[in-house]
Amino acid sequence: MNEPLERVAAALERMSPPPPEAPDFAVSDAFVWQVAPDRLVAVDKVNRVEMGLLVGIDRARDTLLQNTRQFARGLPANNALLWGARGMGKSSLVKAVHAAVLAEGHALKIVELQREDLTSVGRLLGLLRGAEERFLLFCDDLSFSHDDQHYKSLKAVLDGGIEGRPDNVVFYATSNRRHLMPRDMIENERSSAISPSEATEEKVSLSDRFGLWLGFHPCAQDEYLAMVRGYCDAYGIKIADDALRAEAIEWQATRGARSGRVAWQYFTDLAGRRGVVL
Length: 278
Hints:
11 helices, about 45% helix, elongated
């Protein structure tokens, strides 16, 4: 082939690259989906928190664990939306549930998908559809702005499209918003629309396509302190209750919030001062 034709062929390949080959799913239980070019990258060690350290979310934990078990066993299961207060363990719970199901002997893979890559989800589903394994597709911090069109791609994962969601894929997402878009934008579209009841139905109803809605709410002070004490016990840090209470409350006051994330940040500081490696 002469040089001009080679350049044309290379340009065409860049515009329409060949479909990616499925990786060896046996090498890992976790993967990250990346684009340009499309590929699944194996994760050697997942950043997780032990389920026993997640305090104050018992109902959400039990519901999501049961749903995930059903899916891993090949039984019907719902897509799940974990929504609510930031820092209360939504993404940590998804990863902890995956670890718990693995520990029970079920072969379940988790694949993380970034919100910015939702437009490529059709290609990802095509790659997973032909695999023998079962996959938990996970998107953290999912939300949409006023002019965001990414939500249309998400419908293929939930229940849209002529092919539908592959039987070996379930989708879990976390969001600070129950309806995945800001309330002021919902109200703005309703007030300016000819038919207010239909103006935002397409976007708002997206959350209705999740079979499970699991709410996470700000924790009380006792729950916050129980989280910190649980971390101390798990890592063998000895500290008197009075001293722990005073320090932990002062820490959360400087942050202006109480949450599992704030509890872990205080504990990280405490562990560092005590010379404990986490």
